[in-house]
Amino acid sequence: MRIYRLLFFLCIFVSPRRSDAQIFGVGGWREHLPYSNAIQVVISPTKIWCATRYSVFSLDKTDNEITRWSKVNGLTETGVNAIAWDETTSSLVIAYSNSGIDILNSTGVRAISALKNATQPGNKIINQIYIVAGRAYLSTGLGIVVVDVASKEVKETYVIGSVGSRTRVNAVTTDAQFIYAATEEGLKKAALNGPNLSDYRNWTLITEAEGIPAGNVANVLNNGSVIVALKNDTLFAQAGNAWSLFYRDGFAITHIQTANNKILLSESQNNSARVVILTAGAQIENILQHAAFIKQPRLNSAEENVYWIADESAGLSKFENNNFQSYLPNSPTSVATGEMVFRDGALWVAAGTVTDTWQPTKNKNGLFKFENDLWTNFNAATIPAFDSLPDIITVAIDRSDKTVWGGSFGGGLVNLNNEGKTIVYKQTSPLLPPFFATGEYRIGGLAFDSEENLWISNYSSARELHRRKKDGDWNSFDVPFPIADNAVGKIVIDELDQKWIVAPNGQGLIVFNHGATIENPGDDRWKWYLKGIGNGNLPDNNVLSIAKDKNNFIWVGTSKGIGIIQCPQEIFSTRGCEAILPVVQQDNFAGYLFSSEKVQCIAVDGADRKWIGTKNGVWLISSDAEKTISRFTVDNSPLPDNDVRQIAINGINGEVFLSTMKGIVSYRGTATEANENNSPGVLVFPNPVPPGYNGTIAIRGVPANSIVKITELDGRLVYQTKAQGGQATWNGKNYKGQTIATGIYLLLISDETKQEKMVGKIVFIGR
What we know:
This protein is an all-beta fold and 767 residues long. Strands 36, 37, 38, 39, 40, 41, 42 and 43 form an eight-stranded antiparallel beta sheet that branches. The protein has a five-stranded mixed beta sheet with strand order 1-27-26-25-24, with no helix packed on it. Strands 2-31-30-29-28 form a five-stranded mixed beta sheet, with no helix packed on it.
């Protein structure tokens, strides 16, 4: 027996070939799903296939090239439960958490929706896939569903509970004579080629008298020599018609898998984990332990003297020749639903969470940064200080020194500089803990004003609002309204430096104007927006989101739609300023905008259009809210989940980042921020336009809402359009809809002065 407690030997982090880099144009999508939470690995002749909680990736055995698989490039769902390789058809079978199934092979992806769309009641979740002779046996909460992989058809369903009832099947295996099912009622078997396996009476329950205790059996497998069943952290093996103890070591056995005639156990005990490799005779061949690579091992696999580990914290790794190697696509380490902010070409994401009622979750995922198409993760694994910063839900970037500020809902305020050094503010700062949790410092929102002062909302504090100046001085303010639990969240600062503060848990919106001097409370002014005429006229008191548009209008998202405050400069005047509830026409009926939706996030693009995130997908609406331009859901786009929590926009290239409960994706929109200096920095992509290209051509960096013309060299007009913000798009056709010929074309723009100037050329090759 070889026991590897691999804590101090050589660990290799492989840099695989980056086919996982995603290139896309206007109207295209790319995904930013987590890939470090691996749940299963299977082996095909040429690739290693790894399933994560959200998607799948493959590793080429020859050159280590990684390929990501998701809805962006052909899969039909997000949220993977199990995978299996079918040697007969050279296909990967993927089962999703919603009971959808994909068959992936060299010809593409084919979906099987029969189980997903089945109307019968009960648990349809697919727990395991076992494939033999081209037939995939799906272990589900209803029973066993048999799929012919080649024809992509459901052939049979076996409901094998006692007296024909539905019972959860955890796993299936076969030998030459029998099919075995590990169920919540116990281990059952039937003749593999017997008549009518859909009849529960043709299945036999293996009793305690035969050697297996009654009750739930977690798994069953055939390693080529013996049938083994897992029950209560103990393995039982079949010998004739009897079953006997095969292996038990006192550890909790969380998962078992067979590969290369070995049995691979994933085990845990006292916050440690290990992978045990057993021979067919129940002898321990290897024990693998490593603090970095084996944290939460799941379903693993093996080839000759090579072990592949799927770990839900550490991702995919290989153990060979006493060394571990890690193979991971670049990605965030987890789903992130905290605030997202774009600044200077980098997206910063707060990866912490709170519940819908603003309770802490002790999430320590930290902060993520996306820059130059690469993700960097800042958490306790990379910066020890982040271990004391749970639930970072808000983030702000200092424009002057580029440092990052994160607000932890429990750990206070953190400043992260460009060298990765941190300063944490809590006990020794003016921040205060809640009276009911004196060891916690809860930050609900962060924002910088025009003078680079940082404003901080201090949830459940006796002083709810703070300002930190650049020189390190602080001022603190009491909200003068009876806000339950002193609940304060997201902050938006308008062009007048007024602070708009969400009061969570159905308590409306607070506005603060500090007057001529911050230090003098005598000129402070406060307003409390609630629903109802005379109270602020919000659609609902439960404010979920807030954004400022290019007209300095304040858009307020609530549980019952949107209100727009169009006169923030008047809110403290005698005239006042109440929210306007936009009325839209739909199906011959007039109604308030998004009145049936929970508006969870709002973002403004370069053309002042609004991206609206709800629990039912995301909308793009016109700047005045009168027109719906686009709507994306899981059914018509690669959006991984309809529950959209945050939106951020890269104003330079128009890329819209959408954070959902199943991960982040981005969409290349048509609008960018305008070229305010009217400089000639106009970028055309692609240029030259290659042969066969039928996508959208983006013309970026033009003055706001300018007229863009494409002409031939002699000046004849080919196409004309108006920019959305600082970007115009063109489909490569003339104004008659005809494909244009190979050649060079001029690009002209005119702004509000109506003066045209030539800013570039577009080259078409091999049309």
